[in-house]
Write a structure and sequence with these properties.
Radius of gyration of chain A: 24 Å
Number of domains of chain A: 2
Order of helices and strands of chain A: HHHEEEEEEEEEE
Shape of chain B: elongated
Distance between the termini of chain B: 49 Å
Largest sheet of chain B: 5 strands, mixed
Helix content of chain B: under 10%
Helix content of chain A: 10-25%
Shape of chain A: elongated
Radius of gyration of chain B: 19 Å
Structural class of chain B: mainly beta
Largest interface: A-B, 51 and 52 residues
CATH architecture of the largest domain in chain A: Sandwich
CATH class of the largest domain in chain A: Mainly Beta
Number of strands of chain A: 10
Strand content of chain B: over 45%
CATH topology of one domain in chain B: Immunoglobulin-like
CATH topology of the largest domain in chain A: Immunoglobulin-like
Largest sheet of chain A: 4 strands, antiparallel
Number of strands of chain B: 10
Strand content of chain A: 35-45%
CATH class of one domain in chain B: Mainly Beta
Structural class of chain A: alpha+beta
Oligomer: heterodimer
Chain lengths: ~150, ~140
């Protein structure tokens, strides 16, 4: 019995509640919030996480915004900057007591500046399965173009 | 150290069970954030799984352990180059241990806008009940 008291952590590792795993998770989420660095890649720590990619003709801006009413999503652009904002709210649950609340809720607003200009009149925005995808065609001048070199 | 007082649900993050559960698909295994709340009839669980279509979502109930797995297709086309990369494409997975207070046959699931809503009705004996006091 004395030996068990000297090493309480070996018992804790085998219990279903596993308080050490919970503590590790709490510390990781605290560090994520303070430094913006997650185990799965760096973020700015701001909701929603966004990926921006490009190919020859378009820019693609994708934001993970699950559970939003698409009518309340506000996408606006000026020059080379795209701004996405909205409010994420769960339906009010009367008389409910929360055991766990991990999902971010409330108003959000993020903007991203693209390296080149795009044609604002032909932007396509889709919201499918909680992912907002913006397809932005590049201006002709921003597309790479070959120049033939003439001799003599 | 605080212990959790959840009745009917205990969450085990995907990273805790990494040694026993391995993803069979290549890619990152992500833990979706969840909200769990309870009212008098049922427990409700909301999980953020953006990019997962209902066809790619599996909900497994085996020996009292509920596992939600959602596969999100990679969104980036093959000829696209990343400029800003904040989130990976991957599979969402999380497991929960259900107590007998849940009526497991009546679990309902809906997936809308990337949010999974699981309704776990309480078994009859777990619902709060008023006991009438009879006089004489």
């Amino acid at each position: 019995m004395i030996v068990r008291q000297l090493r309480p952590w070996s018992v804790a590792l085998n219990t279903p509640t596993n308080s050490f795993a919970q503590m590790r998770r709490d510390m990781e989420s605290l560090l994520e919030r303070l430094t913006g660095v997650t185990g799965e890649g760096s973020t700015s720590g701001v909701f929603p996480p966004m990926n921006v990619s490009e190919d020859q003709d378009h820019y693609y801006v994708r934001a993970l915004i699950p559970g939003v009413d698409a009518a309340k999503l506000d996408v606006s652009m000026v020059h080379q900057t795209i701004a996405v904002s909205g409010i994420r709210q769960s339906p009010e649950e009367r008389g409910a007591s929360y055991h766990r609340k991990e999902r971010a809720e409330g108003a959000f607003s993020r903007s991203v500046t693209l390296p080149e200009s795009f044609d604002g009149a032909r932007v396509d925005a889709k919201y499918v399965d909680g992912v907002l995808t913006l397809t932005l065609p590049k201006h002709e001048a921003a597309k790479p173009r070959r120049v033939t070199v003439q001799t003599s | 150290m605080a212990t959790e007082q959840t009745q009917g649900l205990q969450a085990r993050g995907a990273r805790d069970i990494a040694t026993t559960t391995e993803g069979t698909r290549p890619g990152v295994l992500l833990t979706p954030p969840v909200d769990i709340f309870e009212d008098s009839d049922a427990l409700t669980l909301l999980a953020d799984m953006p990019g997962v279509k209902p066809a790619h979502l599996t909900i497994d109930l085996h020996e009292g352990v509920l596992t939600i797995t959602g596969h999100a297709e990679p969104q980036q086309g093959s000829n696209e180059v990343a400029v800003v990369h904040e989130y990976p494409a991957g599979t969402f997975q999380r497991s929960f241990t259900l107590s007998e207070a849940i009526d497991q046959a009546q679990i309902q699931a809906t997936l809308r806008h990337g949010v999974l809503r699981l309704r776990l009705p309480k078994a009859e004996q777990a619902k709060p009940r008023q006991i009438k006091i009879q006089t004489a």
